[in-house]
Amino acid sequence: MSELSYARYGKDNVRLYKVHRHEDGSQSVVEMTVRILLEGDIETSYTEADNSVVVATDTQKQTIYILAKQNPVTPPELFASILGNHFIDTYSHIHAAHVNIIQHKWTRMTVDGRPHPHSFFRDGQEKRLVEAITRRGQGTSIRSGISELLVLKSTGSAFYGFHRDEYTRLPEVWDRILSTEVECGWHWKNLSSIAEVRSVVPQFDQAWEKSRNIILETFAKDESASVQNTMYKMSDQILAAVSLVDKVDFALPNKHYFEVDLSWHKGIKNTGRDAEVYAPQTDPNGLIQCTVSRKSKAKL
Ligand SMILES: O=c1[nH]c(=O)c2[nH]c(=O)[nH]c2[nH]1
């Protein structure tokens, strides 16, 4: 009558903090939220109440803490791969592990002009992301990313020449505010084993830093013709900068700032070139997405 067509289970929202105590007395901290979802020969737990195939989600949570104690948790790509491989290696009936990590910001404080040895502050909501899928016999595929990076430019953005018809009300603009909350991911070439993951470890932090710089610099410097064109330029540069990445994806909301016509009050000029006071909008917002892939080399 019915059959199970999708089954994954695991622990979500596992919050984890790790301190690293350096020899000079200073400390570094990492805070993350981890999600694990397992796949495998687990159908009978759903269909026949057979819990013998269930690695309890509590066991998964305890495993996260134990492996965090025994291994580095940075870069998060490495820790996600260590976790994924653990579940595949330890349980023969588990065939795939999906590990998602959200790394939260703790930025070291500067006090009396010097980096403070053990005090940090939340420097914005920006997150560093990892989604790692480890499949038995197929290695690990990783998407690294950034989310909730809120940016705004007060000029240097236009939007004109778009299709017009009887449904079009939006005027063309040659100077507008551009604001978005960056959600970007870069997909690494498949890494065939944990040893291969370890061999590229330095590249994970480098790619994050390069991608973040490219996003910010391009956002600031580009005379933007549209969100679409600016995000394509960002993607293209990330592909050029990180050779082990073969695909980049973006999802950028267009956070609108509307002009406010104040002419009703004593003829105040506040539109067009005179606009200074705007009304930021929460919704609706544009949402522009793309995935840009490295062109496969022409076959000889
Ligand atoms: O950069 C933009 N892209 C659009 O597709 C679009 N549509 C719109 O109304 N404003 C904008 N801006």
TrEMBL record:
Reactions that this protein is recorded to catalyse: urate + O2 + H2O = 5-hydroxyisourate + H2O2
UniProt EC number: 1.7.3.3
Residue ranges the record marks as coiled coil: none
Family listed: Belongs to the uricase family.
Pathway: Purine metabolism; urate degradation; (S)-allantoin from urate: step 1/3
Function: Catalyzes the oxidation of uric acid to 5-hydroxyisourate, which is further processed to form (S)-allantoin.
Annotated binding of O2, by residue: 57, 254
Active site residues of this protein: 11, 57, 256
Subcellular locations according to the entry: Peroxisome
Residues engaged in binding urate: 57-58, 159, 176, 227-228, 254
Protein name listed in UniProt: Uricase
GO molecular function, one term: urate oxidase activity
SUPFAM superfamilies: Tetrahydrobiopterin biosynthesis enzymes-like
Binding positions (5-hydroxyisourate): 57, 159, 176, 227, 254
Gene Ontology, cellular component aspect: peroxisome
Enzyme class name: oxidoreductase
Keywords, alphabetical: Oxidoreductase, Peroxisome, Purine metabolism
GO biological processes: purine nucleobase catabolic process; urate catabolic process
